[in-house]
Specification:
The protein is an alpha/beta fold. 47% of the residues lie in helices and 15% in strands. It contains 15 helices and 13 strands. The strands form three sheets. The protein has an eight-stranded parallel β-barrel, surrounded by five helices. α1 crosses α15, α3 packs across α5 and α10 packs across α11. The radius of gyration is 20 Å and the shape is globular. The termini are close together. The relative contact order is 0.13.
Length: 347
């Protein structure tokens, strides 16, 4: 049973920079963690803290989990990716995602149609820019380079970046939860970033990934493809008490991150068999009854997506995670906790 690679997730900020994040990044680099990841929602961005904290590291890969596509044009994201890749000496991993309609339409003021089609176009443009083989021309349903619309001046010029890329192939990983999006990650991406991964759904994940591998037409792609998931590990004597620390997080995502009928996180728990509970959670959460919503979550639902309880229990349950398609687990913890958590996962 192979060890899993370890990553550190700093997440996105709440009211300000997370306390101790810089120290945790340095400790993860010292301990030999494979990667560190930053995120964005509608507050802090993903790229700035990654560059700031990452500048103090030596070996660890620097990833975004995720850059929201609607926040930047494909060209702007490609520029950031090439810049980060140069500054880090080829350690950058570009994690991308479509986000959801509430954020895209509410925060970025853009429509949210056909996210799979937009993702495919977005990734292709980035790859064309980074390869720097020719001036970039792309005329799709969502992106037009040079712009050819009737409301333009008609003098746009196809360009290629002035910067020569450090690598002509920067890894692109997709954040995905829905079945077609997971397959798309395997088809056009170099990795997949699930949020609520569950070992009991491993066969379903592998099936969706294989569809994408087959569609890519790339021999051996499955062997190099990476899957990195958040894994919350909360050790303690009382599993129920440990689960209490995770319940509000699940309630937020299953109940409050999206409207009824348009919550991709809800759909994930529904596929796990928790549709009835998730429906009740959503009803309460959208009424503002957040504590009641969290209180509905049974221990077993938490244990499907997290490791909680005594260390011996966690080590025993870790075995099933190592039998899945995961290649990396992403931890979120203080600097002084990372070595202990690494030992629980890989011994």
């Amino acid at each position: 049973m192979a060890d899993l690679k370890l990553g550190l997730s700093t997440g996105y900020w709440s009211s300000g920079p997370p306390a101790g994040a810089a120290e945790a990044v340095l400790e993860a680099d010292r301990l030999g963690f494979d990667s560190v990841w930053t995120a964005e929602a509608y507050g802090s961005d993903a790229l700035t803290p990654l560059a700031w904290w990452g500048s103090q590291t030596q070996n660890i890969r620097l990833g975004t989990s995720i850059v929201q596509m609607s926040a930047r044009t494909p060209a702007a994201t490609a520029m950031s990716a090439m810049t980060m890749d140069h500054l880090s000496g080829g350690r950058f991993v570009l994690g991308l995602g479509a986000s959801g309609p509430q954020v895209v339409e509410g925060w970025y003021g853009q429509p949210y149609p056909r996210p799979l089609e937009r993702t495919r176009e977005y990734v292709q443009i980035i790859r064309d820019i980074v390869r720097r083989e020719a001036p970039v021309e792309f005329h799709g349903k969502h992106y037009d380079m040079p712009y050819a619309g009737d409301d333009g001046m008609g003098i746009g010029k196809a360009l290629k970046p002035t910067v020569h890329p450090f690598r002509q192939e920067i890894p692109i990983w997709l954040g995905a939860e829905g079945p077609k999006n997971v397959s798309l990650a395997a088809e056009i991406g170099d990795g997949w970033l699930p949020l609520f991964f569950s070992p009991k759904e491993d066969a379903w994940y592998r099936e969706r990934l294989q569809i994408g591998f087959d569609a890519s037409g790339e021999s051996g792609k499955a062997d190099r493809f990476e899957v990195a998931s958040m894994l919350t590990v909360i050790p303690g004597d009382d599993a129920e008490a440990c689960a209490d620390l995770m319940r509000p997080f699940i309630a937020l995502y299953a109940g409050g991150m999206g409207a009824k009928g348009a919550n991709f996180h809800f759909d994930v728990f529904d596929r796990m068999g928790w549709g009835g509970v998730a429906t009740e959670i959503q009803e309460l959460y959208l009424q503002g009854k957040k504590d009641e919503a969290a209180g509905l979550i049974p221990l077993e639902m938490v244990e499907d997506v997290a490791l909680v309880g005594p260390p011996a229990k966690i080590k025993d349950e870790m075995a099933k995670w190592k039998e899945t398609c995961l290649t990396t687990v992403l931890l979120s913890a203080r600097a002084d906790q990372l070595e202990m958590l690494a030992d629980l996962i890989n011994g």
